[in-house]
Specification:
Elements: H1 2-7, E1 11-16, E2 29-35, E3 44-48, E4 57-62, E5 68-73, E6 77-78, E7 84-97, E8 106-113, E9 127-131, E10 136-146, E11 153-160, E12 163-176, E13 182-185, E14 189-193, H2 201-218, E15 226-230, H3 234-241, E16 247-251, E17 254-257, H4 264-272, H5 280-291, E18 293-294, E19 297-298, H6 299-309, H7 315-321, H8 327-344, H9 347-354, H10 360-368, H11 372-383
Bound molecules: calcium ion (CA).
Length: about 375
């Protein structure tokens, strides 16, 4: 986060210490954020001389009999898709707890609105926010909020809708311009890097070699050059892409990674350039199977361990609910099963299942002449242990 601000001059749009006694800063307002009854009793929200270093601060005092909970909002600032805002603030809390039907809101965040003033949700949530701890001394909270498609403005939002006391001071929001990526092109890649997250010449060559090797093993070619974005840290990747994972693919020629060399995502990109696979189990299984290991250990070692622990789910469940199961379990299991299929048949047989239509059960039966349960038994028998 610090790095982003350092490499690209950020433009502050909101900055207040809540230092005018008794009144909210110019442009700030309140509106009802939640109700826990039909009454109009509100929490005490005001500016008090209890800020950091003896200054004024905004204070929320909630009680069990409150039924109408206001949010505190900054004025609307223009926002456009692609913009990001770094929202920061200092928060102190004392005894925050839910009573009755209260909601667990104790956050600093940003809310975005469309041209009609309607909230534009992000990932099913109205606010991109960071929660304060229930009891904490002055702590700096920060959140990077990405402007969603359709939004034209954004506001900083502060919300406490529970019993207890919270103080907020020195709130700011900075517009973070697009970062200045350094680009190095090779025949097959465009490597994009930021200061603090470089990629050496040897690593670029290694990525090129991995691409060629994987194409050979898959029998597929990535016809388009690959845009490889390497991030210096997870906070920067999350802020810039909205995806907090170690690495991901955003379209058929673009991968984003924390690592300077990435084989797993390269498999995804090659596969995506050659068609669509509708099964996350097969997509991740193929990428893991190609590397032959998971977090430094053999795939079958993981499966044996899960079986001994009683944690190995039936494959039928992974086929339907892959994203609902812990990925520390799903990835090596899917990888091990796909590796088994690649031993049982050849790559092109597997790819008919991968790119096939209809249920995965039917595709497996057609390609391997056996149903899922039979294949699963064979696979586990081969793993032993
Ligand atoms: Ca202050």
């Amino acid at each position: 986060m610090v790095l982003l601000v350092a490499v690209a001059l950020a433009e502050p749009v909101v900055a207040t210490g809540f230092d005018v006694p008794g009144v909210l800063p110019a442009g700030w307002s309140t509106q009802v954020g939640a109700t826990t009854g039909s009454g109009d009793k509100e929490p005490s929200i005001g500016i008090v001389p209890e800020g950091r270093d003896g200054s004024q601060a905004l204070r929320f005092v909630g009680r069990g009999d409150v039924e109408r909970w206001p949010v505190v909002l900054s004025r609307a600032e223009p926002a456009a898709l692609g913009d990001r805002f770094l929202v920061e603030g200092w928060v102190r809390t004392e005894g925050l707890r839910r009573e009755g039907g209260q909601f667990d809101n104790r956050y600093l965040g940003m809310v975005f609105e469309d041209a009609k003033g309607e909230i534009v949700e992000v990932g099913g949530k109205p606010v991109q926010a960071v929660q304060a701890a229930p009891d904490q001394d002055w702590t700096r909270l920060s959140i990077c909020a990405a402007v969603p498609d359709g939004a034209v403005s954004g506001r900083v939002v502060l919300f406490v809708s529970m019993t207890g006391t919270a103080w907020v001071d020195d709130v700011s929001a900075e517009r973070i311009p697009a970062p200045e990526w350094a680009v190095t092109e090779t025949t097959r890649h465009r490597f994009h890097t930021l200061p603090g997250g470089p990629m050496t010449e040897a690593q670029r060559k290694r990525n090129g070699a991995i691409l060629a090797e994987l194409e050979g093993r898959l029998g597929l070619r990535a016809s388009e050059p690959i845009d490889y974005f390497r991030y210096p840290d997870r906070a920067t990747k999350t802020c810039l892409t909205g995806n907090a994972g170690n690495a991901h693919v955003s379209d058929e020629h673009t991968l984003h990674s924390l690592w300077p060399v990435d084989s797993h995502e390269t498999v995804h990109v090659i596969a995506r350039q050659n068609g669509r696979c509708d099964s996350p189990f097969l997509v991740e299984g193929l990428a893991v199977a190609m590397s032959g290991q998971w977090m430094g250990e053999g795939l079958d070692v993981w499966v044996r361990r899960f079986r001994e622990d009683g944690r190995l789910p039936p494959l039928s469940r992974l086929l339907t609910s892959f994203q609902e199961v812990d990925d520390r379990l799903t990835y090596p299991v899917a990888g091990s099963f796909v590796a088994f299929l690649l031993c049982r048949g050849d790559m092109s047989t597997f790819l008919t299942v991968y790119y096939g239509e209809g249920s995965v059960h039917e595709r497996l039966r057609e390609a391997y002449g056996a149903d899922l349960e039979t294949l699963e038994r064979e696979w586990l028998a081969g793993i032993g242990g």
